[in-house]
Input
Amino acid sequence: MPRELTASELERFPALDWSEISGRLTHSLRASLERVLETQDGSHLSLEESYELANSEGDDLLGLLVAANVLRADLTGNIVTYVVNRNINFTNICFVGCKFCAFSRGPREADSYFLTLEQMAEKAREAWRMGATEVCIQGGLPHGLPKFHYRDILRAIKNAVPGMHIHAFSPMEIVYGVELTGMPLADYLSMLRDNGLGTLPGTAAEILDDEIRHILSANKLSTAQWVEVIRTAHRCGIRTTSTLMYGHAETPAHWVRQMRLLREIQDETGGFTEFVPLGFVHQNTILFHQGLARTGPTLGEHLKVHALARLLLAGSVNNIQVSWVKLNRKLSQLCLHAGANDYGGTLMEENISREAGATAGQYTSPEDFQSLILEMGRIPAERNTTYSRIHIRRPLAEFTAEQALEAEFA
Ligand code: SF4
Output
């Protein structure tokens, strides 16, 4: 039996070297890790080998974390990116009833709300004035939404701030928009693109396994529908993120199968910009209170999922993001040592995780991100949504000579 790691052993893993830990690993697991480190390609791992990594404990888990960190440095260097953005959750009224969601409300509840198009436009203007390059728009699904409401949101924002990148609408919202309009999926997505949709969040994925999905939300779109929306979006030239929610009713085998499915889609379309593991925040959810989920991820699971993603998605999805709202700042830093390279967005107004019981706050300023990243000995850089442009905002004089060289050529 592998020994159980203490929290402080886990927290100290960034100080370990590959040469120091590799001799203590199970032979087969070490061989898997070495193969990926050598080829920088996770497609060389079989399903069985991937399961072994996902189930690693003790020294094997430390080995996985260290290998992911080495691979991260090889594939993305020492730059940690972030995007200056604002969340706009335009309504919390929703009929879907996901059991892991503490954000949604019935239409008659006292604290339900629905922002007008003008209020959303004003939020976008304000964000632009504060330096945001992106608005991230998602909301609940209220009954009786005007047929073309999602398109009209895009028009309102683009009219107000033409330069703003709009990252909007989960695959669940897209399915709802298709239902409201009766349009074919590809036509509907193309219409949104032509009205200003830049990219689509790959949320509503949770765990892409219908049995687990049924536990989480009986009314949510199916795995096949999620995949169809994403593939069609990519084919329409709309890039998306990809996500996975962990720490509830799923097992490590689900993580592996989802990451392999995302790889398969990426091989076909190349449309994913990043992968974002989302730790389940259990406190205020029905899922937890009905005994259907564990109490969110353990420290080991948080680190393992980020490391596993770096290994399994190597050569396919290059950017692994930490969701700081769900992790808190210190744990985010640890996950950035376990294979991740992106801090996500400043957000300005995070609501969804906060309602579920997360306490990391609603906003991290660009300066805070920069300090947290410098504290880790890495190089902070602001990026746009698709990672096609990055800006080092700190004077090169603040870096070591080696870092300054990397920053200069970034
Ligand atoms: S996760 Fe989204 S779709 Fe599900 S209940 Fe919450 S707001 Fe509605």
